[in-house]
Amino acid sequence: PVDSVALASLLADHIPSYASPPPSLAHGRRLAEDSMMQDTYPLRPEVLEGLKDLSPGDDDPFFSDLLTTFLTHAPERIASIGRAPESPNAETVCTEAHTLKGSSGNLGAHQLQALCLKIESFGREGRLEEVHEPLDALRLELARVHEALERDWL
69: buried, middle or exposed (CB in 10 Å: 19+, 13-18, 0-12)? Predict the structure, then answer.
């Protein structure tokens, strides 16, 4: 894995203009450089900054709507995954985990994405009895992502 703070320092040493990031990256870089958050922050700020840059203007709701949609639908998908082992329905586990994996990755929620991949693999292999442990971790990670999105990005 790349240490974003070390990379930023290296780039700033060799590319003078990098030391002063464009205003759109300043917020994300502050979050990434915060030593308290460096190893524990559940989101990749540069991914969210990239999405933010897609908004046509500061008052455009695109970015906040995107995050709100994720925060609304992610718990529903996790609940669906949680019900599937009782049914048992491996296809539901695969589909819901795959969908949540994609949206998590699109928002830079790397740990959430990795847990979804694990659950998707279990579903694909028909190992539904093994879904419970990563599903519990998925719920906890979603809570961390939710808190970070609400606190820092909405």
Answer: exposed
Scanning the structure block, which residue is given the tokens 């589909």?
95
Contact 80, 58 (CB under 8 A): no
* pTM score of the predicted model: 0.73
Q: What does each C-alpha distance from 73 to 63, 77, 138, 147 come to in angstroms?
A: 16, 6, 14, 15
**Measured CA distances, 64 to 36, 38, 46, 96 (Å):** 25, 24, 16, 23
Q: Tens digit of pLDDT per residue, the chain (154 long)? A: 555 555 556 656 655 544 444 444 455 445 445 434 446 899 999 999 999 988 887 778 999 999 999 999 999 999 999 987 677 789 999 999 999 999 999 999 999 999 999 999 999 998 998 999 999 999 999 999 999 999 999 9
